[in-house]
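Can't paste images in this forum, so I'm doing it all in text. The chain is below; anyone willing to post the predicted structure tokens underneath?
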Amino acid sequence: MIFENQPKITVYAFIGPSGTGKSYRAQMVASEKGINFIIDDGLLIKDNTVIAGTSAKKATTKIETVKEALFMRPEEQQEIKKAIRKYKAESILILGTSDGMVDKIAQNLDLPEITERIYITDVATEEEMKEAKRIRQTEGKHVIPVPTFEIKKDFSGYLLDPLQIFKSKGKGEKPYISEKSIIRPTFSYMGNFTISDNVFRQITEYVAERMPEVYRVNRVRVETASENTNIYIEVVIEYGNNIFDVLKDFKIKCKKEIEKLTAMNVGKIDILAKGVHMPEVN
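Text version of the structure:
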């Protein structure tokens, strides 16, 4: 067994039907049990950070989603096993839709037998589960228990909606704070989300308005590839400024604002100075 030289890992399972809010509550359950590692839909998560795996929700078909979530491929198994060894995980929470699913994941990853099983009905009311299913069915939204910026690179071009959660455990107790990421999977019947070039132009103009060195934005062209969004911008610079320094500063600020406001992963920004604006002389 691959973990034979490590301290024994305690394995927990969090089980519930698809769409009932498992991922939404995963970190809360892990926090209450003192678990730092979560396995959910193909990802290994440690303390709000993805450390290994590829989200099954990015798969192009539901069949591929199941394969990703169960770690059926040897290369995926090895990646997760290596990360568990590296970080010396002592306890792991596996999310799944059934007892059979979590058992299969544990088996594929050579993990010990599951010690404790928590069911969604133990932590959520019937009304809460119905609402979660309604959102899944009508809006096609799924939750991944990590902050938006952690998975942004894997979902460039898809909807990401940060969801803050704050829960107090009682007077004198440390509050539970978490951020989830809501995404719509690529196979969702709701379709993919794209952002028009005009939105990018508006963002670059917003940045330019706050930089007196930039007179105006002339043109914005966007190319969305499989991994990144590449942007080409033409600007006019105010006379008397170092063009190289202005373009460099403008590029950094544009990238920051675009990624913050659209949750898209910007691969490359090319900025060209197409002219210099001369102030009017009275």
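The chain has a mean pLDDT of 78. The chain has two domains: 10-183, 197-277.
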